[in-house]
Each structure stands twice: as C-alpha cells, then as structure tokens.
Amino acid sequence: MREGHLEGLAQGVRQGELDLAFMPTAGVSRAGLSMELLFSSPLVVALPPEHNLTGVGNITLGAIAHEPFVDFSPRWGTRVLVDQIFAMEGVLRSTAFELENFELLFQFVAPGFGLALAPGATMAGRHLAHLQIMRSRGSNPLPEWVVGMFEASASGDLPSNPPAALFKAMIRQEFGRLGSARPVSLSGA
Question: How far is it, in rounded angstroms, from Cα 110 to Cα 98?
C-alpha cells in the first residue's frame, strides 16, 4: 500500500513496482495504463456550518469567487479537476492554503479558513455544510471526480502477483455489486 501523487503512482504501475493504483483520472498521463472506472462523484462546495451561505442549496462559482479557498497541491488530481472547473466557468479564485489530503483540507474548512471544492462522496459523516455547484456558462454538466483502478496495459514482461489478482477480483466484485465498476478504454488518451 502506498499513498502518493498521480504521476508517481502511475509510474510505479508502469514500471511494475505497483500492481494496481486507485486514483482520480483527472491529470494522470494514461500512456501504458489500463483503467476500470470504479465510481464518480460531483464536486460540491464545502463550507463551515455557520457560514452565511449555509442552506442556500445551489450556488455559482462566481458568487463565491471573493472567498478564500483551501485547495489541494497542484500535484493532486483533485486539484487538476478543481482548476479545470473554475476555468470552464471563467472564475478566478484566491487559494489561501494548499494541502495534501482530504482530512487536513476539511480541518481547515471547518473553522472558516476558506471554502473548498471537494467530491460530494467525501462529505458523508462530516460536520460541514455543502452546496451544489450551478453552471453559469454553458449547459453541459461539470466534470465529476472520477476514480479508477489502474494497472499496466502491457504486463507481459511483468511477473504475475496472485494476491494482487485476487484483490483486483474482490474490488471488481464489490464495485460491480454496487453497479459502478466498468472498464474504460484509454486508447488515444
């Protein structure tokens, strides 16, 4: 088990150091990798429960552009996706803090150091409010946070690892049971 940044994990899979990597699909170079989509989640605006926007329900990014933001480091796929969404909406934001994990991000949001865009799936059980993001430009839905299970696409030169194969089968079974796992072609990506 290894936690790391996208390219480090992807490179580890390509070189055979890692059998599998679970990571967001945004911002990862997919050359030499195959991926199965495990799940996706829309991004939401996380804010402290006592924030004056709590209870609004839906909001545009332009309406909160003046707020300070708590973001991930640019090395993380979630940050790549957040930057993409702000660019799609033509909104500039001020990043007050750049952090390396969800727990720390939410710990900075809770006392009001800033707002954050985070996957809605990560909000369960937290004492934070969240708002749905409304498009202010265009009609296409905003991209979602997509997590996939990556492995080397050309693993013929790599030795097989029976425990990793069993783990992969268990993951496929569990996410298949939930109706969310499906193979995704990365050709030309």
Answer: 15
- Structural domains of the chain, with CATH: 6-40+145-184 (no CATH), 43-134 (3.40.190.10)
Q: What is the pLDDT of residue 157?
A: 61
Single pTM value for the model: 0.79
The mean pLDDT value for 169-182 works out to 72
Would you state the structure tokens that stand for residue 24, as one six-digit string?
Answer: 């967001």
The answer to whether the beta carbons of residues 74 and 148 sit under 8 Å apart is: no
Whole-angstrom CA distances from 149 to 66, 73, 108, 127, 187 are 37, 22, 29, 29, 16
- Asked if the model's pLDDT at residue 182 lies above 60, the reply is no
CA–CA dist 103, 24 (Å, integer)? 17
Backbone torsions φ then ψ of 82, nearest 5 degrees: -60, -45
Distance CA 100, CA 168 (A): 26
**Residue 40 vs residues 43, 46, 141: alpha-carbon distances, Å:** 10, 17, 13
Helix boundaries (H) for the chain:
6-14, 77-89, 102-109, 162-178
